[in-house]
Amino acid sequence: MTDVPSLRGAEVGRRIGVGLMYGLWKPRVLGSWRVPAGGPVILAVNHSHNIDGPMVMGVAPRPTHFLIKKEAFIGPLDPFLTGIGQVKVDRHSTDRTAIARALGVLEQGGVLGIFPEGTRGEGDFASIRAGLAYFAVRSGAPIVPVAVLGSSDRPGRLIKALPPLRSRVDVVFGDPFDAGDGSGRRTRKALDEATARIQKQLTAHLENARRLTGR
């Protein structure tokens, strides 16, 4: 049986995230009340900079277990990330262990964080992988779209992959929605349809978040 990532560890990670994010930047959190207070939830986060995951982990109202590429688990970061309940995933293969751990989080009523674009990019949800649809349809968990805005390229940054210190970063949570069509089907066609549904919802949320924040 695959070990389910530690909820207690994720809570510790959330506290560390709160301290780091509010210490280094100025997060402005909008709509966190939209995250269901209990039961399985998937946070689908746009991904343009390295702080997106820690930022959401710190400001989300519930402890979150993110699927994180195995390349990040290097040296002392490996036991640390595992200890705070994060899930190591091999993006270049069907990582059955990571899949089982992620489903375990949802089966136990936890919060799973996913970057549906798979890797850092424009952060505009233009390229969404089928993995998000699989987890949503398989578990029946609602998806909450999350837009992280303000971590874009601007002068004043000390490290290229990070926004300038003490700058404002907006995190906007959207309304939860179901990815499936209610049939519970997990065929390739059903997952493709769910992926298209997800992309439409996430893109609309991002546009709304940009209007809301002026970003």
Automatic annotation (TrEMBL):
CDD domains per the UniProt record, alphabetical: LPLAT_AGPAT-like
Annotated coiled-coil segments of the chain: none
Gene Ontology MF annotations: acyltransferase activity
Domain Phospholipid/glycerol acyltransferase residues, every copy: 41-151
Protein keywords: Acyltransferase, Transferase
Pfam families registered for this protein in UniProt: Acyltransferase (PF01553)
InterPro entries: Plipid/glycerol_acylTrfase (IPR002123)
UniProt KW Acyltransferase keyword: yes
Name of this chain's protein: Lysophospholipid acyltransferase family protein
